[in-house]
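Issue 218. Parser rejects a valid record. Input:
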Amino acid sequence: MPDARRAGAHGQDPRAPAAAAYHRLGRSESRRCHPERGDRGVKKRYLVLASGEVFEGLAFGAEGEGLGELVFTTNMCGYPETLTDPSYAGQIILQTFPLIGNYGMIPEDYEGECLARGYVVREACDFPSNFRCQGTLDAFLKERGVPGIMGVDTREITRILREEGVTNALICNEVPTDLSRVRAYAVRGAVAAASVKAPEEASCKRERFRVALIDYGAKHNIVRELNKRGCHVTVLPHDTPAGEVLLGGYDGAMLSNGPGDPADNAFEIAQIREIMGRLPVFGICLGHQLMALAQGGTTVKLKYGHRGANQPVRDLLGERTLITSQNHGYAVETDGVPGVLRFVNANDGTFEGVDYPALNAFSVQFHPEACAGPQDTEGLFDRFIAMMGGNAYADA
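Output the parser choked on:
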């Protein structure tokens, strides 16, 4: 069993040198993670929290350091989709499920570009088994320059994040004595990094509608869900002026998910304010938050966010509970939004969705396009189609 002690334990001065103590990984644990390697050729690697706590593990993925905001996801599967979700831009992802990589990497399932700063797992599988597999997790991370660390106590780290909140962290090969740059790190410019740089078209058979998808870090499955419903989708850069959207001949506008603090997007908020009420609008995740800000609402950073495929949400109008996939660290405050509160999180009561009936718009904090994940809320895409005049599901 690995030593359960960790550096920077409660009561220790967090300003003390980070190398004072750390988790130590036993030899048997190293062999269990990578039985074909034994103890030869496996480099040590460290996960250093901004508080000074240090966890020792084994290196995999790319060489070099990874500095970012450390967050955890409770997804048990779908790690290729997680790693390619642009909403993780600027963040280090920790998987709470103990074994990751056992079915390899499947490019057809990717949701976008991998913009994560690092990857933390308990155990990484070197020998995936899946008829669709086209590579290993380790190779994927190497190709994209993402450093990983395995063999650390992910349960203990998750407890720290739950009790103390998300924190900055550094994946490194040598523990630094000065953590000032770790503590000073902030996710900035993430939407610009995640968005397309020029319009892209996604056509489909039997096109009935033209939809403008404003890309703040959109997942590919949003486009797939719209295409399935007969929508020709034009993916627009995040900074597209409202006038271009309104004069583009679109039947509706979709505001995508994306990374970072929603309040950092003043230009985008102003454009959304002009669009709402003039086109049917459907917002997801960051798009939901930006719509609320455009209508005078406020957002707040959550202690450790909602990241996983098993988040229960109560539909206040339908009087039912839905299981949703979520990935967000901010939430909309319930006060100040001139709309109808529609969904709330059953775990902590946070705001999960709002209807704007006077503006022919609605938004949700969760991901109805979830893949992999629950499909309880896919019908919200049908509701958007109905708003554009498509079918009988306008009140779904």
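Fixed in the parser; the record now loads. The longest strand covers residues 299-315.
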